[in-house]
Automatic annotation (TrEMBL), chain A:
GO terms for cellular component: plasma membrane. Belongs to the binding-protein-dependent transport system permease family. One of its GO terms (biological process) is transmembrane transport. This is Sugar ABC transporter permease. Residues 90-282 form the ABC transmembrane type-1 domain. Pfam families: BPD_transp_1. The chain crosses the membrane at residues 22-43, 89-113, 125-146, 158-181, 202-223, 265-287. It comes from Zhengella mangrovi.
Automatic annotation (TrEMBL), chain B:
GO terms for cellular component: ATP-binding cassette (ABC) transporter complex, substrate-binding subunit-containing. Belongs to the ABC transporter superfamily. This is Sugar ABC transporter ATP-binding protein. Keywords: ATP-binding, Nucleotide-binding, Transport. One of its GO terms (molecular function) is ATP binding. It is found in: Cell inner membrane. It comes from Zhengella mangrovi. It is a peripheral membrane protein.
Length: 297, 366
């Protein structure tokens, strides 16, 4: 048992094999480039001055690194009539994404646990129906949801958006956790029952700590989905309660004044940073979780 | 004081009946083994006693209490599972104390219980490890430790040794038996291994297809099986079953197994038989009652016959000689030095006093 379980396997040798390797890496390198180039251009453009953008070429590197565009994007770019940059909207997004991810993940875990370990009549039908929710396009629920939010008095507010994302995300989070818990031995739950633990006690003390890998996958998924969402944000919030995606759109698509590409690029990167951070941080836990789960038993 | 009593217990899953009306009375302090082939309902029956399955009908009593509607945690039982079912995220210590934590047992008491159990089971050096870092045998001990700290009235074991390798299994078998002798608590133990059943049980319940075929002490089950199923299930290698017909000659009765093999039945058995000449029967001969002719002290009711050897299977202390008799394969257990090469003719001697006779149609013991 070791992480490098395939190291000792005898590999094919010979020049044909070597040529195949070279071709393989060449193709991989090409695709790397293909995906990296837009990012490189975005970053380099964000460090340029407007003057340099106008005169230089798109792919040239900045002559000097300037943070003016970043500062403006963060603190003073105009979103509509308000010129506070993306900052207030970033906080809107944070205030929306954290509760939405937390609640939908927790409820998904609870659903998955109940659907697999406390089997009840119709559990499969309920799961099938929930799964169906994962295939409903955003657009279909816009109008009914707007009406529902209106009746609840949550129209145009962040709590309303949290509610929408939580409900919409449940289909996915339930799916992830159900598929994880179905592989957990029932006898562990039975043992805990004999040990005197009840539904929630087993959930929080036994089952949830086992589900760290599923939790990381779910958090990455939900965070990315909710943070990047534009449609719900633009439909269910107004002005000051807009999430950062909507604000970014308003910065970039402004029809007045000069088009500040450097500010647009910086703003786009700022808006994308949190998902990147979550992926990097959670991703290491994710891999660690997988490795820990690989120990037999 | 905790015997267990099952009355007309039924369990259905949908339309399939898994437990078909079981009555069982277990005395306090007994070691009961439920044994049977897979799918016979033995684990389901254990889960019913544990409260992990709900009865379809009937009653289960533990002690004087009807427990039909009492959840597992309030039944005063502890259970050891086949897969050990240790909590993978908890240390060995936390695995053992979890039941006490949920029952709010004071910390000092928990520690004392862990100390006691871990030294008893030799797991005191493993307490801070996680189950993933333990070997199969160690996990097994931890699972037993978790059951022991509960100090329950009844222990339930669900095939606890079947995931261990052969040597460890024999060791743990002895330990479980020691444990029972020491604690004197009622144990219900499920296994498909008839050797485990024989070695551990004070009484064995042989199950088949949702019924209990026979319930009795190991010797009775082995020497006086009620039917062909029990006779065939208990014993390894299994009992030889030769089909034949009754042959009467005055007061003497014999079984004609064809091919010139006529086994004379001992007088005790012959006098009891009411069946007429020609009645279809199955003659049951355990392998250890067939040996090389002349190798045992002479006794009454011996029968000698000759057959060519098909295959020999040395096991060390004994050698199994496989031969054809009465149209089926039969096995004799001989001393290694008496074995002969395949193809050679072999003189077998049968101790007919130990022979069992079954009805050819109903399979019931005659």
């Amino acid at each position: 048992m070791s992480g490098s379980g395939t190291d000792g396997i005898v590999r094919q040798g010979g020049w044909r094999h070597r040529v195949a390797r070279v071709v393989l890496y060449a193709i991989l390198g090409l695709f790397c480039l293909y995906y990296l180039v837009p990012l490189v251009i975005m970053v380099s453009t964000s460090f340029k001055s407007l003057e340099e953008i106008r005169t230089g070429s798109l792919i040239s590197l900045p002559q000097e690194i300037r943070f003016d565009a970043w500062a403006k994007a963060w603190g003073s770019a105009c979103v509509g009539v308000r010129c506070d940059g993306l900052r207030p909207y970033m906080w809107n997004s944070v205030a929306m994404v954290i509760p939405a991810v937390f609640i939908s993940t927790l409820l998904g875990a609870l659903n998955g646990y109940a659907l697999t370990k406390w089997r009840f009549r119709g559990a499969d039908v309920i799961f099938a129906l929930m799964l169906f929710g994962a295939f409903i396009p955003f657009q279909v629920i816009l109008l009914p949801m707007a009406r529902a939010l209106g009746m609840m008095g949550l129209a145009g507010t962040i709590p309303g958006l949290i509610l929408v994302h939580t409900i919409y995300g449940l289909a996915f989070t339930t799916l992830f956790f159900r598929n994880f818990f179905i592989s957990v031995s029932d006898s562990i739950v039975h043992a805990a029952m004999v040990d005197g633990a009840g539904f929630f006690s087993i959930f929080f003390r036994i089952v949830l700590p086992m589900a760290i890998p599923a939790m990381v996958v779910t958090v990455i998924w939900q965070f990315t989905q909710i943070w990047n969402d534009f449609l719900f944000g633009v439909a269910f919030t107004v002005g000051d309660s807009n999430p950062v995606t909507v604000a970014l759109n308003n910065v970039v698509n402004t029809s007045t004044g000069v088009k500040e590409y450097n500010v647009d690029m910086a703003a786009a990167i700022i808006a994308a940073l949190p998902t990147l951070a979550v992926y990097v941080i959670a991703g290491t836990y994710f891999v660690r979780g997988l490795a820990a789960g690989a120990v037999k038993g | 004081m905790s015997g267990i009593r099952l009355d007309k217990v039924f369990k259905r899953f949908g339309t399939t009946e898994v437990i078909k009306g079981i009555d069982l009375e277990i005395e306090d302090g007994e070691f009961i083994v439920l044994v049977g082939p897979s799918g016979c309902g033995k684990s389901t029956l254990l889960n019913l006693v544990a409260g992990l399955e709900t009865l379809s009908s009937g009653t289960i009593r533990i002690g004087d209490r009807v427990v039909n509607d009492i959840p597992p945690r309030d039944r005063d039982i502890a259970m050891v599972f086949q897969s050990y079912a240790l909590y993978p995220t908890k240390t060995v210590r936390d695995n053992i104390t979890f039941g006490m934590v949920t029952r709010r047992v004071p910390r000092a008491e928990q520690d004392a219980a862990v100390d006691e159990v871990s030294s008893l089971l030799h797991i005191d050096k493993l307490l801070e490890r996680k189950p993933g870092q333990l070997s199969g045998g160690q996990r097994q001990r931890v699972a037993m430790g978790r059951a022991l700290v509960r100090k329950p009235d009844v222990f339930l074991f669900d095939e606890p040794l079947s995931n261990l390798d052969a040597k460890l299994r024999i060791e743990m078998r002895t330990e479980i038996k020691k444990l029972h002798q020491r604690l004197g608590k009622t144990i219900v133990y499920v296994t498909h291994d008839q050797i485990e059943a024989m070695t551990l049980a004070t009484r064995i319940a042989v199950m088949d297809n949702g019924h209990i075929r026979q319930f009795g002490d190991p010797e009775t089950i082995y020497e006086h099986p009620v039917d062909l199923f029990v006779a065939g299930f208990m014993g390894s290698p299994p009992m030889n079953m030769l089909r034949g017909r009754l042959k009467r000659d005055g007061s003497a009765v014999a079984v004609d197994a064809g091919e010139g093999l006529v086994f004379p039945l001992p007088e005790r058995l012959a006098l009891r038989l009411q069946q007429p000449e020609g009645h279809e029967v199955v003659l049951g001969l355990r392998p250890e009652t067939i040996f090389a002719a002349g190798t045992e002290l002479p006794g009454a009711d011996r029968f000698i016959f000759e057959r060519p050897v098909d295959v020999i299977e040395p096991t060390g202390p004994d050698t199994m000689v496989v031969f054809q008799a009465g149209g089926t394969e039969a096995i004799a257990r001989v001393r290694p030095q008496d074995a002969k090469a395949p193809g050679e003719s072999f003189r077998f001697e049968v101790e007919m006093a130990k022979a069992k006779l079954f009805d050819g149609k109903t399979g019931m013991h005659l």
